[in-house]
Design a protein that fits this description.
CATH superfamily: ATPase, nucleotide binding domain
CATH topology: Nucleotidyltransferase, domain 5
Structural class: alpha+beta
Shape: globular
CATH architecture: 2-Layer Sandwich
Radius of gyration: 16 Å
Distance between the termini: 38 Å
Number of domains: 1
Largest sheet: 2 strands, antiparallel
Helix content: 40-55%
Order of helices and strands: HEEHEHEH
CATH class: Alpha Beta
Strand content: 15-25%
């Protein structure tokens, strides 16, 4: 769906991508819930809205950290399964206005660490 979602910028709906209840960052609202404003045209439109909403929420977090005085220049290194999506990485780079780098091992914990945990 990434290739199709790339053609849906911006999506026809706005999505706040919160699974479950409660937000901790960039603001603390225990009763917060995710939402979609509008009716998506189809599942690709909804998918695009959630990707865009997630990236915009990430930008809000970085803007807040910058306002607090945190240094936020340079390349952003991303990890995790979702980083396999070239479109998702580019969308984040575009919205954040900074380069995004995928390390050689993009999993949050190196495979050797997981084997040790599983063994013991």
């Amino acid at each position: 769906m990434d290739a199709q979602a790339a053609l849906r910028e911006p999506a026809t709906v706005v999505a706040y991508p919160l699974a479950g209840r409660g937000e901790r960052f960039p603001f603390c609202v225990p009763e917060a819930e995710g939402f979609v404003l509008g009716t998506p045209a189809d599942e690709v439109d909804l998918y695009a809205a959630f990707l865009q909403g997630t990236a915009l929420l990430e930008r809000l977090g970085f803007d807040y950290l910058r306002r607090l005085g945190a240094p936020l220049d340079g390349t952003l290194t991303v990890t995790g399964g979702a980083t396999r999506s070239r479109y998702w990485r580019q969308l984040r780079a575009d919205i954040l206005g900074r380069p995004v780098r995928l390390p050689e091992v993009a999993e949050p914990a190196p495979p050797s660490s997981r084997r040790r945990e599983e063994a013991g």
